[in-house]
Amino acid sequence: MDNVGLIGAVSIITAGLTIAIGSIAPALGEARAAAQALASIAQQPDEANTITRTLFVSLAMIESTAIYCFVVAMILIFANPFWNRFVATVAER
Amino acid sequence: MQISPDQVIVWSWGPLAVSATIVYTWIVMAVLVLGSCLATRTVSETMRPGRWQNLLEVLVSGMREQIRDVSQHDPGPYLPFVGTLFLFIAASNALAIVPGFTPPTGSLSTTVALALCVFVAVPLYGVIEHGLGGYLAAYLRPNPFMLPFNIIGEISRTVALAVRLYGNVMSGTVIVAILLSIVPFFFPVVMQLLGLLTGLIQAYIFAVLAMVYIASATRTHH
């Protein structure tokens, strides 16, 4: 396989693996956080406001690991720097 | 496919290039400023305020309440900064449903700029509250060995703040664009609704996290 095909194939496979593996842990973490928050709201309905706000903030922080993986996958597919440089060098020739 | 409005150059003059991000940012700013100007033109202190005044009062008092809940302080000094962050991000994310409008928060440069504002504001509020020495001493807590980790934490949370907002908004626009080419008509609308929800939640989270960081810098240590 020539270099263009190699870079393209590796980028696409890595992008898929990135988002597939990278979304497992945040999903488990968010599920735990949400389950715990629901249990707490059921026990203390008066504190629902505080619990919900804290839940949203912590969900966002947990979710950011998945978002990093997503950004990396998007960069690999749509704005791959190695791909762009290789295409540019080929075009110069 | 464009994953960022940065790459669209609207107008350029020599080395100066105005990208679509700047244009959309100015549109959001104009909407916010003109809207507030028109709404506060006829401010009345009667028992029946106008509907626009009512809207702004609900917004401002809601933000004050949230800031008071998070910081356990008087919201006065924090409202201008945190409230502006929330309003700007919420307005630009909500305007995403207007056809042809790309939210400026979907570009990494805008979100990095907003996160840098927080990065500068946190020590500013801390120094105002505790003085320079008192603020810098907080880096040596709980013991001086934690100094490098405190500094790394300060930088990494700024990066996380920027990338989180960028990733969320950008993923919304990219998913809608991809779906439009696969299943047009109905399904992209549903995803756009979801994007509207996450956009507002992200605006809320950005403001609350900024407030949490400021509160941790201004908290009194005993």
Kindly describe this structure.
- The complex is a heterodimer of chains A (93) and B (222).
- Chain A has helices at residues 3-22, 24-43, 48-78, 81-92.
- Chain A is mostly helical.
- Chain A has one domain (3-86): F1F0 ATP synthase subunit C (F1FO ATP Synthase, Up-down Bundle).
- In chain A, helix 1 (3-22) packs antiparallel against helix 4 (81-92) and helix 2 packs antiparallel against helix 3 (48-78).
- Chain A is rod-shaped, with a radius of gyration of 21 Å.
- Chain A starts with a helix and ends with a helix.
- With 222 residues, chain B is mainly alpha-helical.
- Chain B is globular.
- The model of chain B has no long low-confidence stretch (mean pLDDT 85).
Core attributes:
heterodimer; A: 93 residues; mainly alpha; F1FO ATP Synthase; 4 helices; rod-shaped; B: 222 residues; two-stranded antiparallel ribbon; globular
